[in-house]
Structure formats: C-alpha cells, structure tokens
Write a structure and sequence with these properties.
The structure is a single chain. With 269 residues, the protein is mostly helical. It has one domain. Helix content is 72%, strand content 2%. A two-stranded antiparallel ribbon has the order 1-2. Strand 1 and strand 2 form a beta hairpin. Helix 7 packs antiparallel against helix 8 and helix 8 packs antiparallel against helix 9. The protein is globular, with a radius of gyration of 18 Å. It starts with a helix and ends in a 6-residue tail after the last helix.
C-alpha cells in the first residue's frame, strides 16, 4: 500500500516541478516571494507538492473511504491555502489576529482559509469509517476533524525556514507510511520537494503546508488507535495554542537537538 502511494507521489511531484519551472515568467510572478534571507523564492512548490500527494493518494490501495477523506482534506485545504497565498495580506496574523479582524467587520483571506481548513477537516472526518453510531460517532467526527485541521495549521506554522515544514509533516507521516496510503503519499511528495525547498529556491506556502498537513492529519485520524490518537490531538492543539504566544523559530534555535535537525540539508547560516 505505502510503496505505491509514495512512488507515485514522488514521481508526480518531480514531474510537476519540472513543468512549473518552464512556465512563462508572467505565470510565475504571482507566486514569487522573498524568504528569510531576503532572496527570491517561488510558492509554486505548494501546488506542485499537493497535486503530487493527491496523485499518490489516488493511486494507493487504501480503502475507498480513507482515500476519499484524504483527497477531500488535501484538495480543499490546499485550495484555500492557495487563495491566502495569492490574495492574503500580512496585516492580520494567527487565529487571534483574524478573529479580531472579524470583530471589526473585516473578512480576511486568513479567516477564509481557517474556515475552509476546518470544513475540510470535518468533511474528511465524516467520510472516515466508524465502528459505532450515534453520539459516539459525532464525537469521533469532531475529534478527527480537529486533528486534521490542527495538523494542517501546525504544518503551516512550521513553514518559516527551509525544509522545516517538510521535515515535520514527513516525521508525522513516516511511521504510518507502510499501512496508510495518504501517509505514504505525503512522504513521497515531501521527499521530492525537499531539494528545492532546502536549497531555498522554493517554499510550500499556505497551499502546500495546509494541503500536506491535512492529508497527514487524515492518515493519523484513520490509522491511530483511539488512546494514541487522543494524545496526538492534545499535542497538536497545545502546539497550535502555544504558537499564539511563543515563537517556534526561537524555541528551535535555543534547543540544540532541534536546531541540529532544523539545519539538516540547509545552506549554512
């Protein structure tokens, strides 16, 4: 199951990346951004990685419901992330910033993205197979939806330095890659995207981080036993909440073993 999804995702991502490099300049310009070094990078990595991962999910031998859930989560989260990449502003940051803007009557692109990722998470969760019905099923859908959406947002929060989000989403997905088509597809797409991302030629952006993160979250929701899934959900929620007050970049830089992992494959400081 896993090998096929990973192989298709990696091959599709690599092929799409080559095609994106040949796009006319006017088509690439809307995706051009400046990274933390002040150098030009492209956000086209995001759509390329998401489409590659979706191809891997579609080709995998996962059950129909799990496959459908991952396709819905990845495509919707990637789409609203792309909208924020192309239409977003930097005036509002984080959940608090977007909620404050809503209170003032301003609907930000980030608020639309948050709503879209939340809807994607709940829809994907509703598609996953359930062993029970009634109130237990509803509670399971809400919890799984929160895990999917939370993982998507957490991956996006990591996309501040080269390769960081890819390492994070791959680390979440790799343990499940043998048994989960969506997890394997995420690993394959991440591996194919890594050289350009680590080389600081491109970055995932909201599209790539939300899309891959949502698919990884779907794999977690579909594959983990309930006790472990509850622990992972608690960790994901805690990290999302902490991000409102704590800089992940500062924490990573100040923790030697995390900083070492963060620097793997990157250009020297």
């Amino acid at each position: 199951m896993g090998l096929l999804g990973a192989a298709v995702a990696a091959a599709a991502t690599a092929a799409l990346e080559r095609a994106a490099e040949k796009l006319p300049k006017e088509n690439r310009e809307p995706f051009e951004r400046t990274n933390h070094r002040g150098e030009a990078v492209t956000l086209l990595e995001g759509p390329v990685a998401v489409l590659g991962a979706l191809a891997g999910v579609a080709a995998s031998r996962s059950s129909g419901k799990v496959k459908a859930a991952a396709l819905v989560a990845g495509s919707i989260s990637g789409a609203v992330g792309a909208y924020d990449d192309l239409r977003g502003t930097t005036q509002a940051k984080g959940f608090r910033g977007h909620l404050s803007a809503l209170k003032r009557g301003e609907v930000t692109s980030g608020a639309i993205k948050i709503l879209g990722v939340g809807v994607a998470g709940l829809t994907a969760a509703a598609l996953l197979p359930r062993k029970s019905g009634g109130a237990k099923a509803i509670a399971g859908i809400v919890a799984d939806g929160a895990l999917i959406a939370g993982t998507a947002n957490l991956t996006n929060l990591l996309d501040l330095r080269p390769g960081r989000a890819l390492k994070g989403v791959a680390a979440l997905s790799a343990p499940l890659a043998v048994v989960s088509g969506p997890a394997a597809a995420v690993v394959g797409a991440a591996a194919a995207s890594a050289p350009s991302d680590l080389g600081e030629r491109s970055m995932l952006g909201d599209c790539g981080a939300n899309g891959l993160g949502a698919m990884a979250g779907t794999a977690l929701a579909a594959s983990l036993p309930r006790p472990l899934k509850t622990l992972v959900l608690a960790a994901v929620v805690a990290l999302n909440v902490a991000s409102e007050k704590v800089s992940f970049t500062k924490v990573i830089a100040g923790t030697p073993f995390l900083d070492k992992i963060d620097q793997w494959g990157r250009r020297p400081r």
